[in-house]
Amino acid sequence: MTHADAATVAKTDKPSLVSALRAFLPREAVLHHDDELRPYECDGLSAYRAVPLMVVLPETTDQVQRILRLCSERKIPVVARGAGTGLSGGALPLPDGILLSLAKFSRILEIDRVNRTARVQPGVRNLAISQAVASDGLYYAPDPTSQIACSIGGNVAENSGGIHCLKYGLTVHNILRLEVITMDGERATIGADALDSPGYDLLALMTGSEGMLGVIVEVTVKLLPQPETAQLVMAAFDDIEKAGDAVARIIGAGIIPAALEMMDNPAIRAAEEFVHANYPVDAAAILLCELDGTAGEVAEQIQQVEKVLKERGAGEIRKARDEQERIIFWSGRKAAFPAVGRISPDYYCMDGTIPRQRLAEVLKKTAELSEKYKLRVANVFHAGDGNLHPLILYDANNPGELKRAEELGGQILELCVAVGGTITGEHGVGIEKINQMCVQFDEHELTQFHAVKSAFDPDGLLNPGKAVPTLRRCAEFGAMHVHGGKLPHPDIPRF
Amino acid sequence: MGVGTAQVEKRSTILVSWICIAVTKQNDLSKEIQDRVRQAAAARTALRIRGGDTKAFYGRTTTGEKLDVSGHRDIVSYEPTELVITARAGTPLDEVEAALAEKGQVLPFEPPHFGKAATLGGAVACGLSGPSRPYSGAVRDLVLGVVCVNGRGERLSFGGQVMKNVAGYDVSRLMVGAMGTLGVLLEVSLKVLPRPATTVTLALATDADQAITTMNAWAAQPLPISATCHDGELLRVRLAGAEQGVTAARQKLGGEEVPDGDTFWAELREHRLPLLSEAATLWRLSVPAAAPASAAEGTWLLDWGGAQRWFASELPADTIQQQAIALGGHATLFRGGDRTGEVFHPLAPPIATLHRRLKQAFDPDGILNPGRMYREW
Ligand SMILES: Cc1cc2nc3c(=O)[nH]c(=O)nc-3n(C[C@H](O)[C@H](O)[C@H](O)COP(=O)(O)OP(=O)(O)OC[C@H]3O[C@@H](n4cnc5c(N)ncnc54)[C@H](O)[C@@H]3O)c2cc1C
User: Fold this and answer.
1) What ranges make up the beta strands (E) of A334-414?
2) In this model, does residue A490 exceed pLDDT 60?
3) CA B304 to CA A191: how far, in whole Å?
4) B234: which of A209, B299, B331, B368 is 20 to 30 A away, CA to CA?
5) Are residues A206 and A253 in the same domain?
6) Residue A267 is part of which domain span?
7) Does residue A221 sit in the same domain as residue A239?
8) What's the rounded mean pLDDT across residues B130-155?
9) Which residues of A touch B141 (CB under 8 A)?
10) In terms of domains, do A386 and A439 share one?
11) Which of A73, A101, A129 marks a domain boundary?
């Protein structure tokens, strides 16, 4: 599947481009044969594929600047890629564009233990940062489930979260400074080693901008002290509504757990079969609630949580007896995606976020939609902050099933918007949810987004066609009315 | 049916009961504000946005027709178990905090009021955060969504009322600290937190160098610290959280318990400590927390674990900015001095270009608080 919004670029003279790039890049850093390009044709959302014109693998900032300058001059679109684990097609290549891989930017440049920061290259894996500072009693808090593979540059581009972001925040709360190359090849320092910097909060704007505003070549992250202790409670419920209610009650009681995750029965069964985490397979839902802090704090709060869980009708309540059991309990949740992958040829992961109090209602409607589309749905999600991950199970080999899965997904996202939520909590819009952007935002808001994009990238060459739909696309999708073919502000370029 | 209502229906982002809307409708001036901005854009008239006028001292002095948004007020929705409050920009901060206190919750960034009339919109637009900032986040960390009017007079809604939201660019956070130069804030949604069960303030006598070392050493340990500051003689630390955690930490840190700790942190936040209130010219240096103490002539007060340093000094601006750069940060002429010159730290050329273009993108006619932040726009 390719997408239609790509900037129209004049047919590129490939051999001349290859030699221009090789003037400052080693041979092996410029890939252009079809068999070399194949591995890059998709990211973690494999239903969408496109072979890029070329792949470049720079290893210095200077090289990135020269690549972008060259592409600017020749009006060639560029898509940045980290580890390619994105789930919304953000790193999907363009057939007429260059795919710029940051894989070789894989060094940790500096660890400042006193100020508790680490300066790293964008290709460094999320988990590698915490591993590098573990012996100092520090860690990098955001922990996406993909943390062994995903890159910190990709995390910044997506504003990624993890199971512990309920207490410790998302990527945007845990970074200080970026070195960014804009499409014209200029280098800019965004943010600072201090807690803030003068002027607008460009650090927030860059975070979650899906590779549309600049290429990140360095990230300074904050490091936190490892909590003294962590304790995990697992509670089983015979009714998903009760579990949802318990979530609201725990938070209403003034407790902010380090993590508060929920899995429904299909997800519990899949995970249990896969990793034997000792989950109650008959439960309608389980909650995994982790508390961390000093030993005293945790002991105090765990009692409160157990009390709330009981009051809200939890059946079995199990406390991890030791660190080993805590890890086993988590293993099922962390392996939930691949576990579902074992019971279905394909699955499609959604990412809507809703107000917690609408949890039961949304899960119920999702079940109805699942019936209607005749596709199974397993739910595993960040209950504490209302971030749902319905996994739609389908088989791409059955004609029409992918399309049905996509339709069902779209309906779920629109449901999230309708109850006051959003179409994406942490995976980004990419190419996948671009149509639903037309539901969440009106034409003025979308036009404002395009104007922001233009401020950084006037020619629209960086990751064009992703994240923000054109108004025309929305009109075609049917979610926006364009009167008499007239769009507001024809002066603002649209991509 | 106002513009506001149509938007509510379209996206259903505001889940208030019918009764709630009826109660607050009279204080909804969004339509009037939007019309004013539209007219100003057509006539290219500069607007000076005013909330409670408590932070007029901050930023540059500007002219322009007054656009008073203090009448656009009231809490739109507040659901304690969601940890989210949404209020109109003109709502007094006092009112927001009182509503939260009733349910045992707080604004985690402890916004400075600088006066009774302080509004939520003003606090967000100025982007100032209180003593808890390094430990529980700045105002930008807690903002979940905004509704605003851009320089074209369009009503726009970004972010929302949920904890995680990556749909579209993060314009909500971009508005924080933009001093009204990108849009007139109409509504803000903020994440709130439970008020800590216990707080204790301790004081230790020490010099600035030792204080910086100590504050940073503490920050590298899992301690329930929620504020630290050094006034030249005493290092004060506030512990906050569950009873047992606070008690254990208190034994670990030592020092004397300050009897009226809460008052001290409020005085610090509101700049009522003589060191801050009596300064003719007050600078704010934002630097890495462990940057060494400076010997520059003037009076220093270290806040935010060393990351925010108040400096009362009559040294030339350039000298102080160089000092801040040497320490790895930047300097703001916070209060006093020449407010017609630049008061914010100069921007590096590529960053300045991005600022100009962003201003153009939101406010092409340059009518929203022109010159409030930087002279040029
Ligand atoms: C099994 C699995 C579990 C996951 N769990 C989570 C989870 O718990 N939480 C979560 O938030 N996400 C999760 N994800 C999604 C994904 O891992 C994250 O979005 C991650 O941040 C992507 O990083 P990446 O390096 O793979 O980026 P890529 O997929 O390579 O790229 C993602 C986007 O970032 C841009 N980009 C990448 N690097 C740069 C750069 N240096 N400069 C500018 N733009 C750049 C790309 O253009 C693209 O738009 C999961 C994915 C999988 C497969």
Assistant:
1) 346-349, 377-381, 390-394
2) no
3) 18
4) B331
5) no
6) 229-339
7) no
8) 98
9) 169, 172-173
10) yes
11) A101
- Is ligand 1 within 6 A of the CB of residue A215? yes
Which of A56, A81, A220 should be mutated for ligand 1, with most atoms under 8 A from CB?
A: A81
Strand order in the sheet with B198-205: B256-257, B198-205, B234-241, B225-230, B299-303, B308-312, B282-286, B330-335
**CATH class entry, domain B13-194:** alpha beta
Which of A339, A358, A393 is a domain's end point? A339
Angle between helices A61-74 and A14-22 (to 10 degrees): 150
Mean pLDDT of B54-62: 96
Number of domains in chain A: 4
Do A172 and A243 lie in one domain? The reply is no
Residue A188 has pLDDT above 70, yes or no: yes
Verify that A216 and A201 share a domain, yes or no: yes
Say whether A296 and B83 touch across the interface (CB within 8 A).
Answer: no
pTM: 0.94
Residue A357 carries which DSSP code? G
- A136 and A57, same structural domain? no
Could you give the CA distance from residue A419 to residue A396 in angstroms, rounded to a whole number?
A: 31
The pLDDT tens digits of the residues spanning B207-250 come to 999 999 999 999 999 999 999 999 999 999 999 998 988 999 99
Average pLDDT of chain A? 92
pLDDT in tens, A79-101: 999 999 999 999 999 999 999 99
Mean pLDDT score, A375-380: 95
> How high is the ipTM of this complex?
0.94
C-alpha A143/C-alpha A130 separation (Å) is: 10
Residue A160 CB less than 6 A away from ligand 1:
yes
Distance (Å, whole) CA A23 – CA A395: 46
Alpha helices in B83-143 (DSSP H): 93-102, 120-126, 133-136, 139-142
CB spacing of B288 vs A194 below 8 angstroms: yes
Whether the predicted pLDDT of B25 surpasses 80: no
Q: Determine whether the shortest distance from the Cβ of A151 to ligand 1 is under 6 A.
A: yes
pLDDT of residue A12: 72
